[in-house]
């Protein structure tokens, strides 16, 4: 975080991330400042902090940070989890699961990964990749 906080202070975040969306850049900067203030500097620090319910609750006080962000960060630092996003929800709907509740879907997909004896992170990545590739067939025009 030490290096990132310097970039945030210099106003170089958008350039570093190559992001155009000012709201997303601002959220990233708030996250970096939050982690810096919490003395979370390394991957190991993040991994340890994310195991604390109090830290996760404080983190979710940031605008735009919810359970999906927490779970995604956990996956990035090696904690087995499922980040329920639109791809997980679409896959669940196709499988006939009509419950859209975040915790329900997270638990269902974690359970499925455990039953299949595969990493929850790998299962999440597989579903994400599959759904990201799955697109409606392109319409063809016949003249």
Query: The biggest beta sheet, please?
Result: none
- The dominant shape is globular
Distance between the termini: 58 Å
Uncertain regions: pLDDT < 50 for 5+ in a row? none
**Residue fraction in strands:** under 5%
| Average pLDDT figure | 92
Oligomeric state of this protein: single chain
Annotation field: number of helices:
9
Number of strands: 0
Task: State the helical fraction.
Answer: 55-70%
Structural class by SSE content: mainly alpha
* N-to-C order of helices and strands: HHHHHHHHH
Q: How many whole angstroms does the radius of gyration measure?
A: 18 Å
Question: Could you characterize the architecture of this molecule?
Answer:
The chain has 143 residues and is mainly α. The protein is built from 9 helices and no strands. α1 packs across α3 and α7 (86-94) crosses α9 (120-133). Helices cover 64% and strands 0% of the residues.
